[in-house]
Design brief:
- This protein is mainly alpha-helical.
- It folds into 2 domains: 65 residues, Arc Repressor Mutant, subunit A (Orthogonal Bundle), CATH 1.10.10.60; 155 residues, Tetracycline Repressor, domain 2, CATH 1.10.357.
- 63% of the residues lie in helices and 0% in strands.
- Helix 6 runs parallel beside helix 9 and helix 8 packs across helix 9.
- The relative contact order is 0.10.
Length: 243
């Protein structure tokens, strides 16, 4: 049975609330049932909006599914545009600290919305096990450019003309700090409940991850010096004083 107009909650006139309701409802249903087994009518009912809103905002179910993956409010991962904006295309010197923080915070900030992140994680696992093609788009449009931006920032920091395999390994390992925290966020409370239980604890964890990332970079600088590789002209990272 369709949704009657008087059953719908009042919406903001600019449509933002209706669009966000659809994204949240779709995330929960796609995560639970998968793309093929979720109908647009179910999504509209759960969002308490007219079913025509889906075509208005997203075109069709596939467009809504793609938009859920791109929703910066809930889905973890660095904002590629933010990271790319910090890296000059001409190789100019940029702040490695800013790039590292943007990448790691992209994984940690969503943890402050635990229920939504739980659904997002389930959705990503479903997509990888039963692909629709959207995951490849995520890799090409977000993951790859973010990785390349980090690689470029590392090359600038280490005064390297181009990246080698070790720089790519380092970039992947740095991103893995945030990814592992995201993937294991439901395990951590059982190990130590004071690590990510509050927004303040999550912020503290982000700062620690940032320090660990800088330590990994410094270790690579020392390794290259020991191997006779061209040294970096930057000083090792020093964490800010707590006082």
């Amino acid at each position: 049975m369709g949704v009657m107009k008087n059953d719908l909650k009042p919406l903001r006139s600019d449509g933002v609330e209706a669009r966000n309701r659809l994204l949240d409802a779709a995330l929960a249903l796609f995560a639970e049932k998968g793309f093929a087994k979720t109908s647009t009518r179910e999504i509209a009912l759960a969002a308490q909006v007219n079913i025509a809103s889906i075509s208005y905002y997203f075109g069709d179910k596939a467009g809504l599914y793609r938009a859920v993956f791109e929703d910066p409010r809930t889905c973890p991962g660095p904002d590629a545009a933010l990271v790319l904006g910090a890296v000059g295309p001409d190789g100019q010197r940029v702040s490695l600290d800013f790039v590292l923080r943007a990448i790691l915070a992209g994984f940690t900030e969503p943890l402050k919305q635990a229920d939504l992140v739980h659904n997002c994680r389930r959705l990503h696992f479903r997509e990888m096990l039963d692909p629709t093609g959207v995951w490849q788009e995520v890799i090409e449009n977000n993951i790859r450019p973010t990785h390349q931006a980090l690689v470029q920032a590392l090359c600038t920091h280490l005064a390297l003309p181009q990246a080698d395999d070790d720089i790519h390994r380092l970039a992947y390992s740095i991103a893995s700090l945030g990814m592992m925290l995201h993937v294991g966020s439901e395990i951590l409370p059982a190990l130590c409940p004071t690590l990510i239980g509050t927004p303040q604890q999550i912020d503290g964890f982000t700062e620690r991850l940032l320090g660990y990332a800088h330590a990994m970079v410094d270790a690579e600088v020392r390794r290259r010096k020991a191997a006779g590789a061209p040294p970096s002209d930057t000083a090792p990272f020093a964490p800010p004083s707590p006082h």
